[in-house]
Every structure is written in C-alpha cells, then in structure tokens.
C-alpha cells in the first residue's frame, strides 16, 4: 500500500463541546501526527460520538481550539477531502446490493476499486445481497469498505466493530493498522481495546 501523498495532523487544546446547550465534554488535549491513532473510551452518553462529530466539523467546539494540518495548510475546520467519518448509523441504501452501494459511493466521491474494497472487508460472499437484507455486521463492513474507496488521511470511526464478529474485528483492526502505516491518523470510539499502539482518551460520564 502506498503512503498517503499528504501529511496530516490534528491537535486539540482544551477543546470542549455542548449538546443542546448542555456541557458534554471539556478539556480535551491531544495531538496526532501522521501514523498515529487514538482510542476514545467512556461509558454510554459520555460524549464519544459528540467529540467525533466535533472533530468532523459537524458541531462547533464551544471552547478551546482544534488545529488541523494537511500538507502544511492549517485550519480549525476539518479539511475538505481529508476526512472519512463513519457515524453510528449505517448509511447504505437498502434497495441496492452491497456492491452497488460501494459503486455509488465511489462514483460520488471519485474513484476506488470496489472489488478490492469488498475483498478487504471479507465481503465477497454478500456482494450481491441487497443492503436491506445484510446482517448488521455485514452492513458495518460495507460502511467501512467506503473508507477504502477514497484517499482520506484522517479516519473518524464511531464504533466500527459494533455487531462485528471476532474474525471481523481482526479484519477491521488490520484496515486501521494499514491506514496508519500509510501515514494516516485515526480516532476510534470503541469498547474493544485497541492496544498499546493507540493513544487513549478516556471520557467520564
Ligand atoms: N443531537 C443531540 N441533541 C441533544 N443531545 C444530544 C445529541 N446527541 C447526543 N446528545 C447527548 O449528548 C450526550 C453524549 O452523547 P454521545 O452520543 O456523544 O455519547 P457516547 O459516549 O457516544 O455514547 P454511546 O457510548 O452510547 O454511543 C448524551 O447525554 C446525549 O443524550
């Protein structure tokens, strides 16, 4: 796998976010350089999804600063074309097959080898199944395969292994490791322990 062409980093300094006017997370500090990943821990409702949304630029920090650097360009907002955000909810179209969903995504977002992406998530056996009929774990794999169709240096993943079996967790772990070894950065909210190679940010309720 070839390295990403652009160097990316993200720094948070005392960043915090609210939801519906209520303080959710405060005092977030970290920095991620190319090749580094971070795991978000914390009980349900502690703000992991909210933080990922803030990093993706979907909600504003109410205090502190986020600083993205992509190929030397500095910005407080997530760089367009530099971030892949995997939310909680499956984003597939139920009437299209797994493969058609990925082709559609590739068309809209400019490129990618759908066959290779399906293979990488061990999805050959369900490529012709309509997404509405996929199991939750199969759908999650299709969701993740989208990341392989676009060259985004930052991955923000909200519970990528939810509903995924043990073999699937290893598959996804490898995708994330490969992404990091290409020089990408990743922030992953998950209850699975990603191990020592990842920075850790633990949120309290
Ligand atoms: N759109 C929203 N509007 C108002 N409040 C919200 C919204 N989304 C989340 N919240 C609230 O923000 C808090 C943090 O929720 P969030 O989903 O970020 O937590 P989480 O750590 O990701 O939880 P889980 O582990 O259950 O996914 C919760 O109290 C939740 O009710």
List keywords for this structure.
binds adenosine-5'-triphosphate; Rossmann fold; single chain; five-stranded parallel sheet; transport; four-stranded antiparallel sheet; alpha/beta; 5 helices; 205 residues
Descriptive overview:
It is a single chain. This protein is α/β, with parallel strands linked by helices. It has a single domain (8-193), classed as Rossmann fold (3-Layer(aba) Sandwich), CATH 3.40.50. The protein is built from 5 helices and 9 strands, in the order βββαβββαααβαββ. It has helices at 48-56, 98-109, 114-120, 136-145, 166-181, and strands spanning 8-19, 22-32, 37-41, 63-70, 73-75, 83-86, 154-158, 185-189, 198-202. The strands form 2 sheets. A 5-stranded parallel sheet has the order 6-7-8-3-9, sandwiched between helices. Strands 2-1-4-5 form a 4-stranded antiparallel sheet, covered by helices on one side. A hairpin with a 2-residue loop joins β1 and β2 (22-32). It starts with 7 loop residues before the first strand and ends with a strand. Bound molecules: adenosine-5'-triphosphate (ATP). Adenosine-5'-triphosphate binds next to α1. One of its GO terms (molecular function) is ATP binding. Residues 5-203 form the ABC transporter domain. This is Heme ABC exporter ATP-binding protein CcmA.
SSE inventory with pairings:
Blueprint: E1 8-19, E2 22-32, E3 37-41, H1 48-56, E4 63-70, E5 73-75, E6 83-86, H2 98-109, H3 114-120, H4 136-145, E7 154-158, H5 166-181, E8 185-189, E9 198-202
Parallel strand pairs: 3-8, 3-9, 6-7, 7-8
Antiparallel strand pairs: 1-2, 1-4, 4-5
The structure holds adenosine-5'-triphosphate (ATP).
Adenosine-5'-triphosphate binds at residues 19-20, 24, 42, 44-50.
């Amino acid at each position: 796998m070839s390295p990403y062409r652009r160097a990316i980093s993200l720094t948070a300094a005392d960043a915090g976010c609210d939801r519906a006017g209520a303080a959710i997370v405060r005092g977030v500090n970290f920095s991620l350089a190319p090749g580094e990943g971070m795991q978000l821990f914390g009980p349900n409702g502690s703000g992991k999804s909210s933080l990922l949304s803030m990093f993706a630029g979907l909600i504003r920090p109410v205090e502190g600063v986020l600083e993205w650097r992509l190929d030397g360009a500095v910005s407080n907002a997530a760089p367009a074309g530099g971030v892949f955000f995997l939310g909680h909810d499956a984003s597939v179209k139920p009437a299209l097959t797994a493969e058609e969903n990925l082709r559609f995504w590739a068309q809209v977002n400019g490129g990618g080898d759908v066959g290779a992406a399906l293979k990488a998530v061990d999805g050959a056996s369900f490529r012709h199944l309509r997404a509405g009929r996929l199991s939750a774990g199969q759908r999650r794999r299709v969701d993740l395969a989208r990341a392989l169709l676009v060259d985004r240096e930052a991955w923000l993943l909200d519970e990528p292994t939810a509903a995924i079996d043990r073999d699937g967790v290893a598959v996804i772990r490898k995708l994330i490791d490969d992404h990091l070894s290409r020089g990408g950065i990743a922030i992953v909210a998950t209850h699975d322990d990603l191990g020592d190679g990842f920075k850790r940010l633990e949120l309290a309720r």
